[in-house]
Each structure stands twice: as C-alpha cells, then as structure tokens.
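Fold this sequence, please.
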Amino acid sequence: MKYATRFCYVLVLFLILNTSMSTAVTAAPVDSNQEEALQIANAYLDALQNNDVDRMMRYSYDLNYINEESRREGYNRFATDSLDHYRVESISKVDDQEYEIEVQYTYTDVQSYPLIPYTVLNTNDGWKVIIKPLEVNLNPDSSEYMSIKDGVPVYQMTPDEGKLFAAPRAAVAYYSFDLQSSTPLLGSSSFNITQGTVTINGYQSDRVSSSKASVKYEIVKPLSSGAVNWYGQKTIAGSYPQNGSWYSSQISLSASPITDARVRITNLSYDVYGAGNVYE
C-alpha cells in the first residue's frame, strides 16, 4: 500500500514538472518592440485626450504640418474637450521597426465613430506615432457613412492671409475667398452649431467664365488627432454677383450640436471669388 501511495506521488510530481517544462518551452517570446510601440501609442493618446500639446508633439510625427511652429499652433487651434475616451483595439506587426494600430475614439458630440488607423514607427528620434491626414464621413445619409479616406494636410487647407476668412459675426460665421486652385481652404476661426441644418447665403463669380462658376461649401471639424470630421456640404453652381441676387441654400448636418465647426471651401471651376454668411 505504501508502495502504491509513493508511486502515485511520484507520478503526480512528474506530471506537474512535465507540464511546467512544456509550458516554459512553448510560451511565446515577449515582443519588447511591440510593448515599447504600444507604450508610446498610449502615451500619445493620453496626451491627446488631455490636450497636452508638449507630450503630443514628443510622441508623434504629424504629416499635417510643415514645421514644429505651425504644428504647435494647429494643436492649440484644433484642441477639443469632446474626446471622452480612447482604446487601442488592435496592434499588428509590419516588421521589428513598425507596427499598425487601430484606435476607437469616443466623443461626447458624436454617436458613432470608426476605428482610426495609425502607424507606430521606430524613427531616428525613437518610437513615434505617425499621424496622417484623414477624413471621416459622419453623414448617415451618405453611402460612405463611417468611411475613412486620405485627407488634405492642414498646412495646405490653411489659407494665406486674405484668401479665406471665417469668423463669428451677426450670423454664425462670415466667409470670403479668392481661389485659383482646387485645394480646399479651411476657415481660420471656429463657430458652434446648435441645430441640424445651416443656411449659407452669399455671392460668387468666376473671372474666367461667370457661367462656369462652381464652389463647394462644407461644414467640417478638424481634430488634433489628424482627422477631419465631415458633417455636410452644398455645391453652388453659377454666378451670383455681389450687386445682384445672392444664393441661399441649406446644408443638412449629420450631427448637432457641433462645437468648433469650420467652413471649408473648394474651387470647382477656374478663378473664383466670393463671400457670404452662415446662419442657423
């Protein structure tokens, strides 16, 4: 009986040791690069949520800006307090120096939001989150609702002085523009919208061919995360002279209220100029 008990004890001990050895042999090696990349990503995202510009700049490289001065200015300009929460949903390895992550943001002023992709790259200055210009379609009536596409860098949309201006006036916003290229230009000041529609009222003309004048007016919200939320648009075709009848058209918005909205204007013809107001 003692022999049988001793045999069972030895057998159990053998199985425990064998299992431990097997576990030690088959355990996946720790990817220290992935851990470091994920640590940097979370550091950047935490800074983004807290509008900590210094830390945002330390942990990222942003393709929206051409230098650090304009980048700092943009981060302060597009800072928002509507980011309530973030979560890294996935991370995948490209190679030892590069990882791709997907981030789920939760905003207080947006019901649903798609996963936003980022690259985390080991650069000459260490691991950095690479921020690319993106545009998020938040119009539920659009066939591309919740889709993400490549956007236009902020430095290209930011107008030269006197080219496009949007600032609070008696109306929600006032804008004026003089455009020769098709690069979209972003209003320099933000405004708030409380309703689901806005009305644009103004004049426009084309110096090359007044009959071909065509301008796209959009309501957007640039974010310091690098994305631009798109809420609605209206394309106005034809010439509406300053001293004649102005256009008046309604833009349906995919969300309300919207804080820190901006007008974005795109020339769809040749050499257009104009001005107008945004009303609720």
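The CA atoms of residues 53 and 76 lie 7 Å apart. The first strand starts at residue 60 and ends at 62.
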